[in-house]
Amino acid sequence: MLIPVILSGGAGTRLWPVSREGHPKPFMTLPDGQSLLGKTYRRAAGLLDGWGDIVTVTNREYYFQSKDHYHDAQMARHRGHFLLEPTGRNTAPAIAAAALSLQALHGDEAIMVVMPADHLIVNVEALQSAVEHAVTLARAGYLVTFGVKPTAPETGFGYIQTGAPLDDRGAAKVQRFVEKPDLQTATHYLESGHFLWNSGMFCFSVATLLAELQVHAPELLEQTRACMADSAPVETGGCLQQELSPTLFAEITDISIDYALMERSDKVVVVPAGFDWSDIGSWSALAALIAPDAQNNRASGDAVFVDSHNNFVQSEGRLVAAVGVENLIIVDTADAVLVAHADRAQDVRRVAKQLKADKHEAYRLHRTVSRPWGTYTVLEEGPRFKIKRIVVKPGGKLSLQMHHHRNEHWVVVEGMAKVTNNGTGTHLVAKNESTFIAAGHKHRLENPGVIDLVIIEVQSGEYLGEDDIVRFEDQYGRTV
């Protein structure tokens, strides 16, 4: 049995201001309108012959957001199986947890195909061919990694040096893994013909993986086993969901699967992948997906270039005009603008690092924030007021809650709202109608209809922070 395992984590700080802690890189929308996570899910589904399980290992904070992206990718065709981490501990614990879960559900002979959620693969047919090749080797007891033939001396990728040939289809033993090299070394790798880019994708049987972890990373395996034993998968909303213990998961060694196992085992082989691959690791990589104009300018969104060359502009709404500039990356969002020299694309992460150190809100959240029930967008804010556009999905229900410091005025602009207010029962508020929620009142907003509920919320008060909330009931299991 073949089971795709999607690893959906990582901050994607080199893609700030679009990638943020609350909306990381896998949820980014590409120029074709699809997210990286949605594309990965479609690729995973394409590996299955009919109906099957697709495992996703992600942070518990991203569970509902992931389901939304999978729904857009026709998730109903396959059963979602989510392992929810309380915090990131790198790829080795994530893959070990997935293997232990699959062992319990499907046995030792299940074959895992591990796929990062935030990479782009264009030639899906070539991917399927490479996976078929890898599955054959995995059934023979090998740990298989996928290598991509380098097309340039890229310094942002890890490399795999190939060893002795394994078969007539290009598979080879792995001689060594190499960290991101400098330009001179990367050029040598490219010219030698014996190095491949490390794609971060793997294929192995549950039995082989767990046996090799027992040899090379026994402590990590036992830590993960104890964590998995502390919880059980629960069927909910058509998905299998297992939340991992925050206490036990924090005790697991934070290490990548490359360091923990792949660089130590003698069972590691590489399959050369014939597909076009990118880790979308910077704005330069994203720009490469867009056709240039005659002056080699590229744009996603509304942009005008005058006497400008070799620029990339991404705009989420506003018109961006560039005059007399060259070699710039310009990214415009609702609350932040990035301007960087193209040669410094890798250094964008330093901006995110600084914002995190300063505890700036632009590191964590966008103006539009996803919630299990829908989204809210901050339209305007100032002293003692904040205006939001709130969208509640059909059947969505906010927690029964109370605020100490703010009053709220709700105006329904689309759909029908079901409102609970201060223990007076529930009542319906139709389009073009409004209601008032006073500070200190228990209240709840629900969408009983079949279309999105859209309201404009005007908050007023001395303190309008998102942490001014007391939850009494919540159908999504958030802290009460």
TrEMBL record:
<comment type="function">
    <text>Produces a precursor for alginate polymerization. The alginate layer provides a protective barrier against host immune defenses and antibiotics.</text>
</comment>
<dbReference type="Pfam" id="PF00483">
    <property type="entry name" value="NTP_transferase"/>
</dbReference>
<comment type="pathway">
    <text>Nucleotide-sugar biosynthesis; GDP-alpha-D-mannose biosynthesis; GDP-alpha-D-mannose from alpha-D-mannose 1-phosphate (GTP route): step 1/1.</text>
</comment>
<feature type="domain" description="Mannose-6-phosphate isomerase type II C-terminal">
    <location>
        <begin position="360"/>
        <end position="474"/>
    </location>
</feature>
<dbReference type="InterPro" id="IPR001538">
    <property type="entry name" value="Man6P_isomerase-2_C"/>
</dbReference>
<keyword id="KW-0170">Cobalt</keyword>
<keyword id="KW-0016">Alginate biosynthesis</keyword>
<dbReference type="InterPro" id="IPR051161">
    <property type="entry name" value="Mannose-6P_isomerase_type2"/>
</dbReference>
<keyword id="KW-0342">GTP-binding</keyword>
<keyword id="KW-0511">Multifunctional enzyme</keyword>
<protein>
    <recommendedName>
        <fullName>Alginate biosynthesis protein AlgA</fullName>
        <ecNumber>2.7.7.13</ecNumber>
        <ecNumber>5.3.1.8</ecNumber>
    </recommendedName>
</protein>
<dbReference type="InterPro" id="IPR014710">
    <property type="entry name" value="RmlC-like_jellyroll"/>
</dbReference>
<dbReference type="InterPro" id="IPR029044">
    <property type="entry name" value="Nucleotide-diphossugar_trans"/>
</dbReference>
<dbReference type="InterPro" id="IPR006375">
    <property type="entry name" value="Man1P_GuaTrfase/Man6P_Isoase"/>
</dbReference>
<comment type="subunit">
    <text>Monomer.</text>
</comment>
<dbReference type="InterPro" id="IPR054566">
    <property type="entry name" value="ManC/GMP-like_b-helix"/>
</dbReference>
<keyword id="KW-0808">Transferase</keyword>
<dbReference type="Pfam" id="PF22640">
    <property type="entry name" value="ManC_GMP_beta-helix"/>
</dbReference>
<dbReference type="Pfam" id="PF01050">
    <property type="entry name" value="MannoseP_isomer"/>
</dbReference>
<keyword id="KW-0547">Nucleotide-binding</keyword>
<dbReference type="InterPro" id="IPR005835">
    <property type="entry name" value="NTP_transferase_dom"/>
</dbReference>
<feature type="domain" description="MannoseP isomerase/GMP-like beta-helix">
    <location>
        <begin position="301"/>
        <end position="355"/>
    </location>
</feature>
<keyword id="KW-0548">Nucleotidyltransferase</keyword>
<dbReference type="InterPro" id="IPR049577">
    <property type="entry name" value="GMPP_N"/>
</dbReference>
<keyword id="KW-0413">Isomerase</keyword>
<dbReference type="InterPro" id="IPR011051">
    <property type="entry name" value="RmlC_Cupin_sf"/>
</dbReference>
<comment type="similarity">
    <text>Belongs to the mannose-6-phosphate isomerase type 2 family.</text>
</comment>
<dbReference type="GO" id="GO:0004475">
    <property type="term" value="F:mannose-1-phosphate guanylyltransferase (GTP) activity"/>
</dbReference>
<dbReference type="GO" id="GO:0009298">
    <property type="term" value="P:GDP-mannose biosynthetic process"/>
</dbReference>
<feature type="domain" description="Nucleotidyl transferase">
    <location>
        <begin position="4"/>
        <end position="290"/>
    </location>
</feature>
<dbReference type="GO" id="GO:0042121">
    <property type="term" value="P:alginic acid biosynthetic process"/>
</dbReference>
<dbReference type="GO" id="GO:0004476">
    <property type="term" value="F:mannose-6-phosphate isomerase activity"/>
</dbReference>
<comment type="pathway">
    <text>Nucleotide-sugar biosynthesis; GDP-alpha-D-mannose biosynthesis; alpha-D-mannose 1-phosphate from D-fructose 6-phosphate: step 1/2.</text>
</comment>
<dbReference type="GO" id="GO:0005525">
    <property type="term" value="F:GTP binding"/>
</dbReference>
